[in-house]
Amino acid sequence: GCPGSPGNEHGPEAARAPGVFGHCSQGCAGWDCWGVCAGAAVGSMILGDPSSSGYSPKIDNSTQEPMNCTNHTAYVQCLPAPNITCRDHLGIEKVFTGHEVGFYKPIECRNVNGYSYKVAVALSLFLGWLGADRFYLGYPALGLLKFCTVGFCGIGSLIDFILISMQIVGPSDGSSYIIDYYGARLTRLSITNATFRKMQTYP
Q: Which of 53, 168, 170, 180 is 20 to 30 Å from 7 at the Cα level?
């Protein structure tokens, strides 16, 4: 193991492809590693594509999601840092130089189907009174209704513009908007068994 490395007991397991090494985690967690561990977990693994800035995942320009995103999951390269030696589940040892792919880590990605957020907002802003935004997003009935009523006398156009801008109304097929990977994406939070509100206490 890596004595002194934080979190050396366990590690989330990544999908294992032929010829790659066991687990993907911070530091040497889940590995039989030694070498330059430096007593710290952070920094002993590089996540992403070394040809891109900041070792971020490769992004598909057409979808603005990580490459090979299927079923809301994409696999990103993990590169062990230089002089890290690892033993895989077969007992084979390998010393990494920092340029070889050790394994692949699954990351979450969104399902997109060609609907651009910028186009939807622009249509809603300039042609919302004709129902162009609803036609574009796959709601022909509402689009026709807005067209016949001039956007519900402008009120419906304003409401739709707000809903689309806040990403509350999306494509009718349930897919996500195409938004720049590092753009302004919104995440809706809800109270479930995993998230709950805690009453604020005062001293």
A: 53
